[in-house]
Amino acid sequence: MNSIVDSISDREALNVSLQSLDNKRDDMIALVQKWSAINSGSRNLDGLQVMEAEIVEAFEPLGAEVEFIALGDGESVNQQGDVETVKNGRSLRIYKNPAANRRVLLTGHTDTVFPVDSDFQTSQWLDDNTLNGPGVADMKGGIIVMLHALLTFESGPFAGSIGWEVILSPDEETGSLKSGPILMERAKAADIGLTYEPALADGTLAGARKGSGNYTIVVRGKATHAGREFHEGRNAVVALSRIIADLSELTDGRPELTVNPAVISGGVAPNIVPDMAWCRFNVRLKAAEDGDWFQGKLDAIIDDWNSRDGYSISLHGGINRPPKVLSDANLKLMDLIKVCGNDLGININYVATGGCCEGNNLAAAGLPNVDTLGVRGGSIHSSDEFVLVDSFVERAKLSALILNAFASGKLDDVMNLKKQ
Questions:
Q1: DSSP symbol at 298
Q2: Quick one: how far is CA 415 from the chain centroid?
Q3: What is the pLDDT along the chain (420 residues), one digit of tens a residue?
Q4: Nearest to 348 by CA among 377, 373, 380
Q5: How many angstroms separate the CA atoms of 167 and 417, rounded?
Q6: pTM as predicted
Q7: DSSP string of 227-261?
Q8: Would you say 45 and 73 are in contact if contact means Cβ atoms under 8 Å apart?
Q9: Cβ distance 109 to 168 under 8 Å?
Q10: Which of 324, 362, 418, 351 is CA-nearest to residue 106?
Q11: How many CB atoms within 10 Å of residue 292?
Q12: Torsions phi, psi of 316, nearest 5?
C-alpha cells in the first residue's frame, strides 16, 4: 500500500483532525513538565496515586469508562537475604465501545525508576527542543502522546467506530510481575496493540525483543571467627563467588543468551567468616525454549551447592517476560505503520533489541503490537533522561492516523493473519 491517507474516503476531514494537533504542542509540553514533577517511582504508592488522579482527569474529555484494578502484593529479598512483602499500586483501565468489531489495546505505565528520595525530581531545558526530566520520555511523555491521539481520533471522521482500551500499569519498571496477567488477559480481547515506550532519538522503533528474567540467589553458610575457627565455618561469600562464576559461564550457552550478575552483598566484618551472601542477576534470551535450558542449568548449580555440607542455597524470581517473536501478523502491522509514517513524512525503521517491555507480554498472548510509539528521547533510567519536544505532535499524529487506518479497515489484513 502506497498511502493510507489517500485510500480513506473522508481524507479531508482526516487531515483537518490531524492538523489540529499542531495547536496542542504547548499543552503537551506543559503537561509533561507538570507530570514529571510528580515522583511516581514503582514503590512510591502515594506518588502513583497522585499520577493516577492526574491521568483520569486528563482522559475525562474522552467520555470513557474508568476502572481501577488492585494488584496483589509482591515479594522482594531484603539486605538480610529474607523475603519480604512489597505493596503495589493499581492498574488503571480506561475503555470505550468494548463491543465494537474492531478493538485496539493501548498500554503504558505510570511508574518510573526514580525512587521518592531520588535527586532527580525536576525538569529543565537543555536547548529549545530538548527537555530533561524524570519520566519525560519513559513514559509520561508517551501517555500524553496516547491521550492526544485518542482525543484527535474521537474528534475525527471515524469517531466511535472502534473499541479502544487503555491499560496503564504501576509496576512495569519492576517487571510487570503483577500487572502482566492483566495485560495478557486484555490482549486476548483486542485485535492490535499499541504501546507507548519511547522511540529512539532518531525515531527508530523496536521490533523483536529478547525475553528477560530477574533472580536473587541467597547463600547461607556458617559464621565463625576468622582466626580461631576458620575451618569450622562455611564462607557464604566464597560459595556465592563460585556460583556467580558458574552463572557467567552460561552466557552464550544458547545463541545471544546473556547472564548478568549485577548486585551482590554479604558478610559483616573481615574477622568473621560470612554466613550469608546474595546476588541479584538478570538473564536475557532470544528464544522461549532457551528459558527451560537456562532453568535446568540453574537448578543443577543450586542442587550441587545444596548437597555440600553446611550450605543452604535459595533462589527467588524467574523469567517474567518471554521473548517477543514477530509473527506474520506483527510484521504486517509494522509494515502498515511504516506506511502511516510515510504519509506524515516520518521515516520509520525497526531494530531488534535486548530490552523488554509490555510488548513482550502482549505478543506472548498472541496480540500483534508495536511497542515504541511514544516520544523520541533517550538516556532513560538515568538523570540524563530527555525528550525531544518536537516529537509530541509528530508521534500523536502517527498514532491518530494508525487509529483511523484501523477504524477504516486498512489493518484488517493484520486481524486476518492473527486469526490464522
A1: H
A2: 24
A3: 789 998 888 889 999 999 999 999 999 999 999 999 999 999 999 999 999 999 999 999 999 999 999 999 999 999 999 999 999 999 999 999 999 999 999 999 999 999 999 999 999 999 999 999 999 999 999 999 999 999 999 999 999 999 999 999 999 999 999 999 999 999 999 999 999 999 999 999 999 999 999 999 999 999 999 999 999 999 999 999 999 999 999 999 999 999 999 999 999 999 999 999 999 999 999 999 999 999 999 999 999 999 999 999 999 999 999 999 999 999 999 999 999 999 999 999 999 999 999 999 999 999 999 999 999 999 999 999 999 999 999 999 999 999 999 999 999 999 999 988
A4: 373
A5: 24
A6: 0.95
A7: TTSGGGSB-HHHHHHHHHHHHHTTTTSSTT-EEEE
A8: no
A9: yes
A10: 362
A11: 10
A12: -130, 145
Taking the mean position of all CA atoms in its chain, how far away is CA 216? 21
Q: Name every residue whose Cβ is closer than 8 Å to that of residue 364 and which is 6 or more positions away in sequence.
A: 184, 321, 322, 324
